[in-house]
Design a protein that fits this description.
single chain; mainly beta; four-stranded antiparallel sheet; DKNYY
Length: 133
């Protein structure tokens, strides 16, 4: 068995996440892309479960639980509604932003300016003059 990162491993016949078989994963093309995400030539996976509709060829992990492809942004295994994949940035602690919106754990926040926000230690954030947890 060959160990990959983020809990994935594979042998000649199967791909595994934390020792459990990843159903439908193609062993020869499978690779871990970090943060619990993996992909093969046909599908994208988060923690061993397929993410429906994700575009394999452009899919990348952004860190902090976020990922994107050319059409969508994802937080863990769910699409982030309204997020612009071309402008999206993960800024740590569950926070992310695009050109017009700020997100916490994949959900938009109201009244937060994405250009003024700073991620602070311990899942705190500051958007002058407000603080978030």
């Amino acid at each position: 068995m060959h160990a990959l990162d983020s809990g994935y491993s594979k042998d000649m016949a199967h791909v595994y996440y934390m020792g459990k078989t990843v159903e439908g994963a193609l062993t020869m093309s499978f690779k871990s892309v970090g943060g619990g995400y993996g992909k093969d030539a046909m599908n994208v996976y988060y923690m061993g479960k397929q993410i429906q509709g994700a575009i394999t060829v452009s899919f990348e992990s952004l860190g902090g639980g976020y990922a994107r492809d050319t059409s969508s942004v994802y937080y863990l295994d769910s699409r982030v509604d309204g997020a612009n994949p071309w402008a999206f940035q993960s800024i740590g602690g569950g926070y992310g932003k695009d050109a017009s919106q700020f997100y916490y754990m994949g959900k938009p926040t109201n009244g937060t300016n994405p250009w003024l926000f700073q991620s602070l230690e311990g899942n705190y954030g500051k958007n002058t003059p407000h603080f978030f947890k």
